[in-house]
Amino acid sequence: MSARGFAVPLALLLLLALTGLAHGALLMARSEEGASRLAATLLARELAVRGTLLAVARSGDTLPLVAVGSRALLAAPEGTAPSAVPLRLHLERLAPELHLLSGEVVGFEASSAGLLVWTLDPAWRAAMSDGGGTIVGGEAAYGGVGGSGPAARDGCEALEAVQTPGAPTGVLAATEPPGLGLLVADSLLARAAIHVSGVVSPGPGADPWTCPSSDPLNWGAPSDPGHPCAGRRPFAAADGDLVVDGGEGQGVLAVAGDLVLRGALYHGLVLVGGGVTLEAGARVHGRIISAGRVAADPASAVEADPCAVYLALADAGALRAPLLLPEGPWLRPL
CA-CA distance, 193 to 234, in Å (whole number)? Predict the structure, then answer.
């Protein structure tokens, strides 16, 4: 056979080989395109889950209370989840003040994400008040100190379930007053709905039949259980020094500087970045946490009252809004 006779079959074989390679390359390209589209879809779904979780964590709303170690379904706030992507969200309470927010796309569990958040627990925080009426960073000097405070009142059943001497396990106290838990002072003060300064005399007002919630000096009526403001426990803050000259109030009071209570009555939690002075018969039922010196004259007193602390924190929804914690590739929902 001549050389030309061999060349024709060889050319045909070469063309077939090239055609096969082209088809193989096309199949690989289509496969890679499909994989890329799948990866993009999974990423988009994971971003949708993560975006919804961030919206939940940053909404300012408090998280539902579930038992430690338990996991429950969590409803996304209206407008936070993409309507075209069906999501399933979970809330798992890892410790009294530590939660895992997780979620996935229904039917595509691989598209999942998780966020670790800290939330203040009123019952466990109040249980820390069982050991006394004050925690101070400086010198404490008392002219009069009360006893264990009033008996437990209605609404404090959750406190009774966790009340233990000392600091409960899982409750973090990592900041200086007026910070609380993982809320540093500036963040805590910024969450207050009421800001005051100078000299104030709080009270529920002159009308015994109404409770004006718009009044920044209406801090409730702890001395009168029958008053319309008996259940009002606002979160008030002062960015500098504060003098409470007479009057009464209840709730959470955070002061960045020094605090003077002069003949005033207060029920709840008092957080002070400076020192505290109680004079002229001032009384605090609850707890004072101060970075400085706490002093009381013989007519004044601080009475430990965990129930008052619990009720104050339970009503302070702004303090119980989630705080996002640092995350990394190690954090994946189970």
Answer: 8
Would you give per-residue pLDDT tens digits along the chain (334 residues)? 555 566 666 666 676 666 766 666 666 656 665 555 545 555 556 666 666 777 777 777 777 777 777 787 877 666 655 556 677 788 888 888 888 887 777 766 556 777 888 888 888 888 765 555 565 554 444 444 444 444 456 778 777 666 554 444 444 444 678 888 888 899 999 999 999 999 999 999 888 888 988 999 999 999 999 999 999 999 999 999 999 999 999 999 999 999 999 999 999 999 999 999 999 999 999 999 988 888 999 999 998 888 999 999 999 989 988 888 876 554 554 4
The type of residue at 268 is G
Cβ(269)–Cβ(250) below 8 Å = no
CB 81 within 8 A of CB 52: yes
Task: Judge contact between 261 and 279, C-beta under 8 A.
Answer: yes
User: Which strand ranges, in their side-by-side order, compose the sheet holding 71-74?
Assistant: 71-74, 87-95, 98-105, 108-118, 323-324
How far CA 239 is from CA of 24, 181, 192, 292, in Å, comes to 71, 19, 11, 16
Q: What is the pTM of this model?
A: 0.76
Rg (CA), the chain: 31
What residue type is assigned to position 128 of the chain? M
